[in-house]
Amino acid sequence: MAAARASLGRILPESSILFLCDMQEKFRPSIAYFPQIVSVAARMLKAARLLDVPVLLTEQYPQGLGPTVPELGAQGIRPVSKTCFSMVPTLQKELDGRPQLRSVLLCGIETQVCILNTALDLLDRGLQVHVVVDACSSRSQVDRLVALARMRQSGAFLSTSEALILQLVRDAAHPQFKEIQKIIKEPVPDSGLLGLFQGQNPLLLNSRP
């Protein structure tokens, strides 16, 4: 019964964490829909702060790829530098120190590299992974699409920022609901997802185990 419940992918603030992966200056010109992806990740960050969901932020080789872009709004969060194409090895101690952790909400770039490898490493630890599809992108939209399908095949959940935020809130009686409403009432920028999902794309159909 517990396994069946876990497979639903329900999330709670007290057992969740938000991962923000490598949204840095040097990626700005090359990543498709970069401003839109960062905007949606910033929306997730605002909601996480309101709901007391912890946040971890990484930067890939910042000496060469630059700092996290300011519009993410992550000032006050200490970035963790890495060279590995996964967030998990660098954040191992943080994860080990959170025995209550069940779910990771994953935003950032690139989908087929650090997002995919982070998702696989987290799944390997027995954690649920929720990929925020409107907050992840790549240089190539083919890579983005195939990586999303690959993660879903491996057991990750694909969801949108609004769906995840409202899952965390759960009830309009939540004391922070009015502030959350302000966030979700802002239009979500188009990040090319309709083009990936339209026509019942076979890569994203019936791909869960």
Give a short overview.
The protein is of the alpha/beta class.
Average pLDDT, all residues: 92
Numbering strands along the chain, what is their spatial order in the largest sheet?
3-2-1-4-5-6
Give the strand content.
Answer: 15-25%
Calculate Rg over CA atoms. Answer: 16 Å
User: Span from first to last CA?
Assistant: 18 Å
Largest sheet: 6 strands, parallel
Say how many strands there are: 6
Shape: globular
Question: In terms of quaternary structure, what is this?
Answer: single chain
Helix content: 25-40%
The parts where pLDDT drops under 50 for at least 5 residues are: none
Structural class by secondary-structure content: alpha/beta
Order of helices and strands: HEHEHEHEHEHEHHH
Tally of individual helices? 9
Domain Isochorismatase-like: 16-162
Pfam family, one: Isochorismatase
Organism: Myodes glareolus
Family: Belongs to the isochorismatase family.
Could you explain the architecture of this structure?
- The protein is an alpha/beta fold and 209 residues long.
- It is built from 9 helices and 6 strands; from the N terminus they run H-E-H-E-H-E-H-E-H-E-H-E-H-H-H.
- It has helices at 2-6, 34-50, 62-65, 92-96, 111-124, 141-154, 161-169, 177-185, 193-197, and strands at residues 16-21, 55-60, 80-82, 103-109, 128-137, 157-159.
- Strands 3-2-1-4-5-6 form a 6-stranded parallel β-sheet.
- Strand 2, helix 3 and strand 3 form a beta-alpha-beta unit.
- Helix 2 (34-50) packs antiparallel against helix 8 (177-185) and helix 5 runs parallel beside helix 6.
